[in-house]
Structures are given as structure tokens and as C-alpha cells.
User: Fold these one by one.
Assistant:
Number 1:
Amino acid sequence: MRKILGILVLGAVALSAWAGQVELHFFGSATCPDCHVMKAFLEELAQEYPDLVVVEHEVTFNPDNWRLMVTLGRAYGLKEEKVPTVIVGNLAITGVGRAVELQIREEVERCLAQGCPSPLERLPEKKAWVLSPLEIALVLAVAVVVLFFVIR
């Protein structure tokens, strides 16, 4: 009986620790100065709140991450696809600055107190089918090369 009670107590502790975690998705680019500012802020925030899990998505060189950002952004009602984008709880926000940081902090604190599902739970069945900036650049480069040889 004590063994079962001990297992139940350990399970409850583990479940409460898991339930207290907050998942934040950060979409950034290695070539974006504002993204580096946001990344530094999120690293500090994660140190301050150990139950905050920051999931980083590099979008410039990974078209699937770009499509994930666009799909999640649309699910949250974002009108623009740009980096940095942060999605946590009920908040989806782009840009940097003190006002943005305060909104992120407030939403993280609210989620830690009340609980929030993963932003990925808002994903629709299908991801948005869009070309990433990298894919657009590649298509344009191929078109220029083809046109060069056709015109020649």
C-alpha cells in the first residue's frame, strides 16, 4: 500500500511540474539583428523562470520553420510575417522593444499562474503553403539564369 501511495505522490509531483511549464515559440533569423536582441531577452527570461521552455525556430535557412511561423501566426491573427515573432499562451507578437518585452513577460507570468496549452495546439490540420524568402530567392535566381541563356 505504501508503495502505491508513494508512486501516486511521485506521479502527482511530476504531473504538477509538467503542467507548470510554459512553452514559448521564438521564430528568428540568424541574419536579423533584432532577432539577436529578442533571443538575448528570451534567454534572460528563461533563466528567471525555470518553467519557461523556449523553442527556437530558425526561419531563414529552414523553409519548414517559415511555414510553421506563417501558419501559427495566421492561427493567432497576425497580419504580417516577419521576424522576430514570439508566440506564447494567447499572445503572438512581432518586433522588439520594451513594450514587446513587457507583453511577453506578462503573458509568461499569466501562463505560469493559470496554465496555457502549447501554441502548437492551435495549428490547423494543414500548414500554410507559402514559399519562404529563401525559396523565392532560389526561384528568382534560377529564372534569371534561364532567361540569361534563352536571351543569349
Number 2:
Amino acid sequence: MEVKSIKESALGDNPVLAQMGTYDHEQLVFCNDNETGLKAIIGIHDTTLGPSLGGTRMWMYKNEMEAIRDVLRLSRGMTYKASVAGLNLGGGKAVIIGDSKKDKNENLMRRFGTFVNSLGGKYITAEDVGISTKDMEWVSKETKHVTGLPGKSGDPSPVTAFGVYNAMKACAKERWGSDSLSGKKVMVQGIGHVGEHLVKFLTEEGAKVFISDISEERLSSVSAKYKATVVALADVYDGDVDVYAPCALGATVNDDTLARLKCSIICGAANNQLADEKVHGEAVLKKGILYAPDYVVNAGGLINVSTEISGLTPAEAMKLAQGIYNTTLRIFETAKAENIPSYAAANRIAEKRIADARAKK
């Protein structure tokens, strides 16, 4: 597979099939149900290595094209994430358009489950932003093609955060010669489930942690629990920190923020951190910032939910997430050897595994 740059500016009003071609997608499924108010899109990027697996996100998108662009980017990222993590899975993702606090209910989620079921196992769903394990229980009443259920792999957040933490330690090893994060200043942007677990790991190692979030309640709780310093939303990119850890929504590494960031490392749990993969992937390199590709860093969540399919134990899932440390170092080694940005090195590793699998078929 060829490494492709994705220019967000060119995608806005492009026809849907043109966008699918840009991202090299297999399938895009539109789901509508007037009775429940369900409006959802399922993106299936690549199933060479196995069935596509990826969470369902519920978000109040500005328009349908924004939702399409999001599901295309996210599902593509899942393909690469599974490939680099060594899992026999493809990449998929789903988005439900709506306010998860007001529009979500059992009937809507079960109707979504019937759409997932209609794909016959080509797409396996799980929780994501705006969706809980309880919601997945409702989905599971209509389809067996669901993972991340309570009592099984459950909440993937601890494993995801553990993977991010190990990737950050690998970054420290690459940048400073030691993987210790003790005394390092880390800005964690977004302290949801994953962000809070990351704060816990960092605090336990002795890092000085700064936090920011749209929820004042979350900030108050996490700050009190871990003695983290609260930073205003407007000041996130201006602090004198060693590591910037984006753990909320994507595209926070862009022209504006790169002009302001003073960090040495970017390593966080958010998906699609680079607003434009090629432009900003090269920009961080030129600025001397070490960037850990997001889909490598946050693969712990996928590893966790995949255990329901593979039969691995929670302990084995944590061990695999710890392996993100070595994977991250391998990417930096490839990037230096081939004189390419780290995102391109990760893409090459992911695409080679997929290409090798295709060649054997």
C-alpha cells in the first residue's frame, strides 16, 4: 500500500465516493431510522487482516459532511492501529449524530445494533466517545458483533492509558536517554476516563502533571485526587512543559498550536492529532518535537476489546499494551533510518504488514 497524505482542506465538499477513494475505504454504510431518530454512519476501511473493529462515537456534528470525514479518518486509523499492534483485525468505526446526553436511549442503541448485525460480522463495534459499556449491552441485544461489554473486557480506558504511558516513556528514552518521567512536566489535555488514568500513572512516577478539560467538575475532582495543576483551556498550548499529551478530540496539532507549543514531545491518547497528516507531521519534525503517532500510542483500547475475540486474559492485554513501548521505539528507529517523519514511519510499518497479508491471499 502506498503512503498517502491526506489534505483536510481538499476534503470538505468532495463527493463521498471521492473521499472514500482518498482514504482507500472498502465501504461506508448510512443508517437511518425515523422512529428512534437514529442517524449513523459505519465506516469499514480495510478487512485484509480480519474483520473491522472499532468503537461507536456519538457526537453532535455540525453537518453530515463533518460526520463523514470523521468516520473515514477514524476507521482508517483503526486499520493502521490494528496492523501495527500485530492484531488480526481490520479497521472500522461508527458515528451516531446526536447529543449523547439527550438523544441516546435503549431503543436508539438497539436499532443501531440491528444495522451492525446486518453486516454479518464484517464490522464489530465497541464503545467510544459519548458511548458507555451500558450502551453496548443494549447493542448486544441485537447483535453478537460487539465487544467491550461489562463482565468481559469492559472499560478499555485503563489499558489505553497504560499504553499511552508506555509510549511516553519510550519517547523519553528516545529524547533524553532515560525513560524516567519523574520530574518531567506533562500537559494532559482532556481528563476523561483515559486522561484520568494517564494522570494516575504519571503522578505515581513523580511527573509534574498539568490538566485541562471543558468540564469544571472533572477538573476539580482530578486535581484534588492527584494534586495536578489546572490550566485554562486558552492556555493549554502556551505552557513551558516537556510533554504535551492530547487526550480529547483530534486536530489539536495545527498551524496555530505549533506556533505556540514549547514541548519536546507530543504523545497522547487522542485520535487524529495532526490536523493535516503530511503538513503537520513534517512541521513537528522541523520544529524538533518528537511526535509519537497517535494510533500507535492509543492502541491499548483496541488491544483490550480484542481480548473478547482472541480469548486473552486482562493480564495478557496489559502485557500487550506494555509492548507499545518497543513499538514506539521501532517507529523512531525507522524514521531516523529512512529520514522520514514518525507518522510516515508508522504508516509504512502498518501498510507493509497489510500488503504482505494481501500477497499471501
Number 3:
Amino acid sequence: MNSKEIIRIENLGVQYDGQTALRDVNISFYADDFVGIIGPNGGGKSTLVKSIMGLIPHSGTISFLGEVAGKHHIGYLPQQNLFDKSFPISVLELVMSGLQADKGFGRYGREDKNKALAALEKVGIKHLASRQIGELSGGELQRALLGRAIISEPRLLILDEPANFVDNQFENELYNLLRELNSQMAIIIVSHDVGTITSFVKSVVCVNRTVHRHPTAELTPELLENYHCPIQVISHGTVPHTVLAHHHHGGIQNSKFKLQN
């Protein structure tokens, strides 16, 4: 791969209450990556990104190389259901809060406001800058949270199930926006919606206790079985049908990961 390596993960392991969440993870991410993280529920997808974010303890090493030397160079869009919409804050203030890693809890100035307005324009909701976040639709809030994630111009953007709580039209707009942002930053996106993300991402990482990276977004039942990723593959043709591989992996029996249309 010709792109610059920005993150190197070596021998990563994570345990919760004596149970193995991830083991023997060795993988690198690169400056032009647009990676989809897939896998069964409980397989360790969110654990992997939380480890990269430095949010949970782990064994092994995660090396940030080049321009991704600090947390403020990583933008993070968490699952929307973890965000409190009742918090009394405007859209503009929400986006400016993405600068806290650089500023601490100091007061925001005109330059910060201009950065926030530029981020809102980039995500298409500059006209909602003064709106309270509790008044936003699911799609509008997701755009605002994305604006907060990119305001500091990160070299890596991590998104955890970004299409939850949004309609199909906005979901497509979101992925097209991420494709544009990928020219400026690496993107890692966690999603259960394999059918959608494989239409947009450049490569796929399957996480099921261990991690396997496939260099393209093209998935086949044979590939997923070889990579220990129990996932349902839906193929659309003259007669729609499904192929579901059953196998045992990591102590999980008959694990099924269902694709949602």
C-alpha cells in the first residue's frame, strides 16, 4: 500500500470481567483509508475503535504515526443514542465543543465560531446554527455531530453506527458526504449495515474477537467464512436470495449477523 501509515496496532488484547473481547489484533490504518468495520453483535467492533480512541484499557500497543500523534487529531462520531438531546445548547455551540481538546474549557472566540460555521456549511446545516439541538431531526443532529467531529480538521475520523436513527435518504447523503471528506482524512466506520457500507468504503475489516482485513469491499460467503465472520450475505438478482454460513468461532456457537435492508 502506497498511502502513509498513520496507525499501527500490534498484539492488541481487551478483556472485560475476565472475558476476552479482542485478542491478537495486528492491523494498520493508512492516510487515505475508508474502512468499514463489520462483524457480529458482541464481536468487538466498538471495542476496537474505543481502544484506538484511548477510552478503554488494553494490552499490546497502538502507535500513532505522523500527523495522528494526539487525540485531537482523531474525530469521533459516537452512536447517536448515547447523546442527550435535552442538553440546552445550540447547534453552533455543539460544533464548537469539538475544539475542547485544543482549547480545554476556555472561552470560544470569533475564529472558533468561524470554524464551526465552516464545519456546518460542509455538512449542509449552516442555516441551523442558532437552533437548539433538541429541535433537530435525527438526520440534522447527526450532521451537527459530524460537524463537531471534523471541526478540528482531524487526520482520522471514526464513526460508530452513524446511520442509526436516520432515514434512508439522509443515510445515502451521509455516505456521499463521507466519501468527499475521505479526500481530506482517513475514515473508519463501524456498521451493521453491510449492504450499504460496502457500496461506499474502499476496504472491509471483519471483527469477531480477532480482526481480519480484506483489501477491497467485495464480500463473498467464502471470504467471510475464511475470515471467521459469521454474516448473512444478501444477493439481489432475478430471484432475491440469501446465503448464510454457519460456523463456530471464539466460543460463539451458531453466531448469525443479519443484514438489514
